[in-house]
Design brief:
- 31% of the residues lie in helices and 28% in strands.
- By secondary structure, it is of the alpha/beta class.
- The chain has 4 domains: 133 residues, ATPase, nucleotide binding domain (Nucleotidyltransferase, domain 5, 2-Layer Sandwich); 212 residues, ATPase, nucleotide binding domain (Nucleotidyltransferase, domain 5), CATH 3.30.420.40; 102 residues, Barwin-like endoglucanases (Beta Barrel), CATH 2.40.40; 92 residues, no CATH class.
- The strands form 4 sheets. An 8-stranded mixed sheet has the order 5-4-3-2-1-6-8-7, with helices on both faces. A 6-stranded mixed sheet has the order 11-10-9-12-14-13, with helices on both faces.
- α11 crosses α13.
- Bound molecules: adenosine monophosphate.
- The site of adenosine monophosphate has 12 residues, from α10 and α12.
Length: 604
């Protein structure tokens, strides 16, 4: 299969025709200085050919036929920087999607217009193949509200869509997957901090495969020190510059995006190689640039380790992350307290490439593994595009799935049953639940947090190997605890809670979660929908003619399951889905339809 990846920047275009499974390039082209008299293009790194004055459209119309010749293109993947509120997964491009991307231009005035020109030109030149948009922001759609919200007046922020979106999504997702794969572990068991350090730079906390915090915000300007971008600056400093230097928005934009970062600090440009060379010769500004760069990143790693409740792997990627052993060494100093121990020999000798994309640079006994991983954004985009193009044909959009509202409840192990209900006590069925073999019990328990208590939670049977208490978001505030959103069964490092039963009290050090929304499916259902266990899908729910889309719905497939989607009480309330039967898992009149498979990156 050949996927053409189109990456249109404001003044440059990169085109890669590649195999999405292996990343092997069939052919590539680049266009420089788009929109100026000096515009030129080169194929496979060959001689530059003039395209004087060509804009994106003219450039692509000239370059695509020259690049492709007789070569087959099965699918086109477009990098789109900003997906706004709407696009939290790759999407097949049609006229409506194109218009929606155009409507997002105010959120990303430097990036989306170029991306859009690429889409228009490529659709005109290749009208008969599927075009897919892959968004930089999409991987970060799973950021919890507390991480994506700025402390600005809510009405104003909502009106302008101002929140943290995050960028470099395909790269963070790709290197996190590659790292897990190289370690031979399931990404769903790992807490990974990915440091994408290129000319643009960002760091992401990836909790069990999902982005939960990232350093770039509404725009790709926030966070780390970058080639020419400032990253974090006190907003008050900007007000001072506006007042004292008379700078307006455009001037500030230029200052912060083009004249700051490593370039502004060092005074010798944005290329770290030059800055490292000068620093070694004693240049004070270059030394300072490196110190600020590394300090900022170390600060973020510490913060993200706290967000994740610990870290299993730290990954370095992109131009600086893959190539500068010095930067990795400086950043990783004094992280012993996280169990991160760099092996300096491995660090110095680490070389990664597309052919050999990963290297471990930590000592053998380092609790936190340290890795260098070669990113390949074009392959990430190609794989997402190919998967969506293939899945789109398979998805069964017609079958409706019953919804169950999952009220707060507990699962107990045998020992806890004995402590709460007395030695030798057995769980007694009260009524069967929709999932085969599961039942609500006669027994109920009370749960007690530091701020309050909730009485009468139904125990679900049969007994399990570990305790698990599932509550809704609003319950957290009543109890005064901060419970993570988790898949059922995944209680490691979750929140503590006290259980009270008729025979005694048990203090759990972990086990309290907000259950992630999910669909139970029998393998036959999964085959019909074209999805697999652990896929993440979007689901359209329509109740009383009101269409609502739930993203980030986990698919769970087992021969033991009956087809059913589980929402917690808050989510059901938000969707105005009300149970018609009282109970722990109450079926409702609402129904869901599998809207679109959300492709998670899988290596070929
Ligand atoms: P990227 O945006 O991922 O292409 O990264 C580009 C940046 O990586 C360049 O501007 C350099 O600052 C940096 N870089 C590339 N190679 C090296 C190297 N060998 N040593 C230090 N920095 C490098």
């Amino acid at each position: 299969m050949n996927v053409l990846v189109v990456n249109c920047g404001s003044s440059s275009i990169k085109l890669d025709l590649l195999d999405p499974a292996t990343g092997v390039r069939v052919k590539k082209a680049s266009v420089e200085r788009v929109g100026s008299e000096g515009c030129s293009f080169a194929i496979d790194g060959g001689d530059a050919q003039a395209l004087a004055g060509a804009d994106h459209l003219a450039a692509l119309k000239a370059v695509l036929p020259a690049l492709l010749g007789e070569l087959r293109v099965d699918c086109v993947g477009h990098r789109v920087v900003h997906g706004g509120e709407r696009f939290n997964a790759p999407v097949r491009i049609d006229d409506e999607v194109e218009a929606a991307i155009e409507a997002l231009v105010p959120l990303a005035p430097l990036h989306n217009p170029g991306n859009l020109s690429g889409i228009r030109a490529a659709r005109a030149v290749l009208p008969d193949v599927p075009h897919v948009a892959v968004f930089d922001t999409a991987f970060h759609a799973t950021l919890p509200t507390r991480a994506k919200t700025y402390a600005l007046p809510v009405e104003l922020a909502t009106k302008h869509g101002i929140r943290r979106y995050g960028f470099h999504g395909p790269s963070h997702q790709y290197v996190a997957n590659r790292a897990a794969e190289a370690l031979g572990e399931d990404i769903r068991d790992l807490r990974i901090i990915t440091c994408h350090l290129g000319n643009g730079a960002s760091v992401t906390a990836v909790e069990y495969g999902r982005s939960v915090e990232t350093s770039m915000g509404l725009t790709p300007l926030e966070g780390l020190v970058m080639g020419t971008r400032a990253g974090d600056v006190d907003a008050g400093a900007l007000l001072t510059l506006m007042r004292e230097e008379g700078l307006d928005a455009d001037a500030l934009d230029k200052l912060l995006n083009k004249e700051s970062g490593l370039a502004g600090l060092s005074g010798v440009g944005n290329d770290l190689r030059d800055i490292e060379a000068r620093a070694a010769e004693g240049d004070e500004r270059c030394r300072l640039a490196i110190q600020v760069f590394c300090h900022r990143l170390r600060k973020y790693i510490g913060a993200y380790a706290a967000v994740l409740g610990g870290v299993d792997v730290i990954v370095f990627t992109a131009g600086i992350g893959e190539n500068s052993a010095t930067i990795r060494h400086r950043v990783l100093q004094r992280l012993d307290f996280l169990g991160a121990r760099l092996d300096e020999d491995k660090n110095r000798s680490a070389r990664v490439s597309q052919a050999s994309p990963t290297a471990v640079i930590s000592e053998d006994h380092s609790r936190t593994r340290l890795m260098v991983v070669a990113t390949d954004e074009a392959q990430a985009i190609a794989a997402e595009s190919a998967k969506l193009a293939a899945a789109a044909d398979k998805v069964d959009g017609g079958t409706r799935i019953p919804i169950a509202i999952s009220a707060r409840h507990v699962h107990l192990n045998r020992q806890t049953v004995a402590l709460l209900f007395g030695e030798g006590a057995e769980l007694t069925p009260y009524k069967p639940l929709s999932q085969p073999g599961q039942f609500a019990c006669e027994q109920k328990v009370n749960i007690i947090g530091p701020k309050g208590r909730i009485d009468g939670l139904r125990v679900l049977g049969p007994v399990r190997s570990q305790n698990q208490v599932e509550i809704a978001r609003t319950d957290e505030f009543k109890l005064g605890v901060d419970a993570p959103v988790r898949d059922s069964g995944d209680t490691a490092q979750s929140a503590p809670i006290t259980l009270e039963g008729p025979a005694g009290t048990v203090q759990l050090t972990e086990g309290l979660i907000c259950a992630r929304r999910h669909i139970h499916m029998h393998p036959d259902d999964a085959a019909r929908f074209g999805v697999a266990d652990k896929d993440v899908v979007e689901v359209a729910v329509d109740t009383d003619g009101r269409d609502l889309i739930f993203g980030d719905v986990l698919v769970r497939v087992s021969p033991k399951y009956a087809l059913e989607m589980h929402l917690d009480t808050d989510e059901a309330n938000a969707a105005e889905i009300t149970p018609d039967v009282e109970g722990v898992l109450a079926p409702t009149h609402g129904s869901v339809r599998l809207l679109r498979k959300r492709t998670e990156f899988v290596h070929g």
